TrEMBL record:
Source organism phylogeny: Archaea, Thermoproteota, Thermoprotei, Sulfolobales, Sulfolobaceae
Keyword Glycoprotein among UniProt keywords: no
Superkingdom assignment: Archaea
Originating species: Acidianus brierleyi
Key word Hydrolase present: no
UniProt xrefs under Gene3D superfamilies: Winged helix-like DNA-binding domain superfamily/Winged helix DNA-binding domain
Database matches in Pfam families: HxlR (PF01638)
All copies of domain HTH hxlR-type, residue ranges: 3-113
Protein name: Transcriptional regulator
One MF annotation (Gene Ontology) recorded for this entry: DNA binding
Amino acid sequence: MDCPLREDKDLCMTYNPKIFELITRKYTLTILLLLDKYGALRFNEIMRKIDGITQRSLSIRLKEMEESLLIKREIVNNRPIVINYSITIQGKAVKNAILMLLQLTNLISPTEKDYFA
C-alpha cells in the first residue's frame, strides 16, 4: 500500500489488508469473544452460541481466522474424531484491540441528546 504523504513517509504504517478486513467482518469478534471466554469449543458449540449464523458462514470465518493465526484448530483422535477451536495469543491481542476501539467510540460518540441539540 502506498503512503499518501509527500514528506512525512515515516508516519505511514504498512499493514496486512487481509487481516484488517477479517477483523472487521461479521462474527469475527463474536467468535474471538466466545473462544476467549469458554476455551476450546467444537463447531456445533460455536453454532449454538451465535444467533443467525449459518454453517457455511461459520465454516468460512473459522477457516479465515485459522489461516490468519487468530484461532487454532485441533484434531483430537478419539472415536468419533473431535475438532476443537481455540483462541491464540494473536487472537487475544486482536480481540483486546477491537474492544479498546469500541470503548473509545463509546467515549467520544455524542449522545442522542447532544446530537440533536
